[in-house]
Amino acid sequence: MINTVFIPPNPKKIHKDMPKCNLHTHLEGSVRPETFLALADKQKVKLPFNKNQILDFIQVSGVEKTLVDYLNKIMINYQVLKDYQALKQVAYEAAEDAHKDGVIYIELRAGPLTHSHDDLSIEACIEAMLDGLQEAQTKFGIITGLILSGLRNHETNKNIILAKIAKKYQDKGVVGFDLAGDEVGYSAELHQEAFTIIRDSDLGITVHAGEAAGYENVQYAINNLNASRIGHGVKSIESKSTMELIKERKILLEICPTSNIHTGTVESIESHPVKEFFDSGIEISIGDDDPITSRTKVSNELTLLLNTFGFSNNELLKIQLSSVDHSFLKDDLIKHQLKEKIQEFEQFF
Predict the structure, then answer these.
(1) pLDDT for 138-157, tens place per residue?
(2) For residues 188 and 123, what is the distance between their CA atoms, to the nearest angstrom?
(3) 210: alpha, beta or left, given left = phi > 0 and alpha = psi -120 to 50?
(4) Is 94 a domain residue?
(5) 159 in a domain, yes or no?
(6) By C-alpha distance, which of 181, 233, 209 is closest to 75?
(7) Among 211, 254, 283, 301, the one annotated catalytic
(8) Can you say how many angstroms the Cα of residue 134 is from the centroid of all Cα atoms in its chain?
(9) Catalytic (active site) residue 211
């Protein structure tokens, strides 16, 4: 098995109870292997592999070189994410797994267009995910929000439809709108109209950019799509003007170090610019991106920051506070309560 989280043999460890916020994690990369197999059996899905080989097909193996290679691992999960109960269950379990990792606030993102079909509307997909998140919130106390992702490879008109539907759910648990998928193969410009629709709403805007392609995509997302957060944004380090734009506009970068290795965004974990971003005054959050695909979780990512990059525990807490400030939560009271929980933890350091 490959080393997926790049943590040394005897690492410093973050306190297990440190309150964490996860602003970047995908439902489609959060399907537990046992859940996949159970759903496949229930739905009578004919698998292209032996059940004992499932981990080889849905998790990184070390041969992935690009974002597309990584996305192909995730897309295998689409085979079972095709009915209301399946989407509800996976959303619930994603929030449950986050809660067990000490996450107190999670924004789960998902692409409902990839799961809808003649017998399952886009609206039904969204409602299933919201039901699962609400059930987890009620049971575990974790605060949740849903971000709807349009995919770059989808037809322009389909993402326009998704944007219009997203607005209908902005007071029902949907907190933001995202653009994800093959950054090299499909320009964000194809989907600008969808984001024009979202601007006229209370939804937050985040865009995957500067992951598989250059810093110019980060600039476009900020200037043309009105993004207040950037998914990954790693390539911003290559452009001084882009770094200045991010700081000037107070844009938050949603950093997911482990997956950035798996997608080929950076050559090695040591070369990741996460500390340079932080030290330069750019605000960041730390997510797990696709926790099952990359066999990681937020606590692993924070442990990585502690050991590989020399972040202090107090700096990790500062990142959690930034995450709350830049979250798409509209309820200021809940934001205040989340920040209080984080600040109370300073006494342990």
Answers:
(1) 999 999 999 999 999 999 99
(2) 24
(3) left
(4) yes
(5) yes
(6) 181
(7) 211
(8) 18
(9) yes
Q: Look up the CATH number of the domain holding residue 246.
A: 3.20.20.140
64 to each of 59, 67, 68, 320, 347, how far by Cα in Å?
10, 8, 9, 30, 42
Could you list the residue range(s) of the whole structural domain that residue 317 is in? Answer: 21-348
> 290: helix, coil or strand?
coil
* Structural domain contains residue 343: yes
Number of domains in the chain: 1
Q: What is the pLDDT of residues 283-314, one digit of tens each?
A: 999 999 999 999 999 999 999 999 999 999 99
- Residues 6 or more apart in contact with residue 162 via CB below 8 angstroms: 112, 113, 122, 148, 150, 194
3-state secondary structure 183-238: CCCCCHHHHHHHHHHHHCCCCEEEEEECCCCCHHHHHHHHHCCCCCEEEECHHHHH
The model's pTM is 0.95
DSSP secondary structure code for residue 81 in this structure: -
